[in-house]
């Protein structure tokens, strides 16, 4: 009787475990429209680098308020991004001082790597948007719109 009880328990555990296909877990019909429209993703076959920004309002701000592509040189964007990423990562390492919900992830940005104009443009403009939206100042440089 005891063995039968253990066997029934094991069978019920296996029966209660169910695997799902990804399409069953993710319901695209009910996906938040903000996530669809406020995700900016840039990737290139020429480089192996990608930037994905998921921030409500960023795409709209980028298209309507940010300075247009070509306004700043790639060298300008790279130098600003190096400073901004360094400040961001320092804040990421200090969750007791800075709001950890703002600086959740570390940014892996190598100043010796050519990420191309588009990645640098989007990263720089995200920092500008972030500083304005959350009233943060990452560096002594105050971005102008």
TrEMBL record:
Any Pfam family hit: DUF6146
PROSITE patterns registered for this protein in UniProt: PROKAR_LIPOPROTEIN
Protein name listed in UniProt: DUF6146 family protein
Species whose genome carries this gene: Winogradskyella alexanderae
Organism lineage: Bacteria, Pseudomonadati, Bacteroidota, Flavobacteriia, Flavobacteriales
């Amino acid at each position: 009787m005891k063995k039968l009880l253990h066997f029934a328990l094991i069978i019920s555990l296996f029966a209660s475990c169910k695997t799902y296909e990804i399409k069953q877990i993710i319901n695209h019909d009910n996906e938040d429209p903000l996530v669809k429209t406020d995700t900016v993703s840039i990737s290139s076959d020429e480089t192996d680098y990608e930037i994905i920004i998921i921030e409500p309002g960023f795409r709209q701000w980028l298209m309507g308020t940010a300075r247009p592509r070509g306004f700043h040189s790639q060298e300008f964007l790279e130098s600003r991004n190096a400073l901004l990423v360094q400040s961001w990562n320092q804040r990421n390492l200090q969750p007791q001082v800075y709001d950890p919900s703002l600086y959740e992830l570390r940014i892996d940005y190598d100043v010796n790597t050519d990420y191309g104009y588009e990645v640098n443009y989007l990263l720089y403009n995200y920092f500008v948007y972030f500083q304005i939206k959350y009233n943060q100042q990452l560096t002594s440089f105050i971005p102008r719109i």
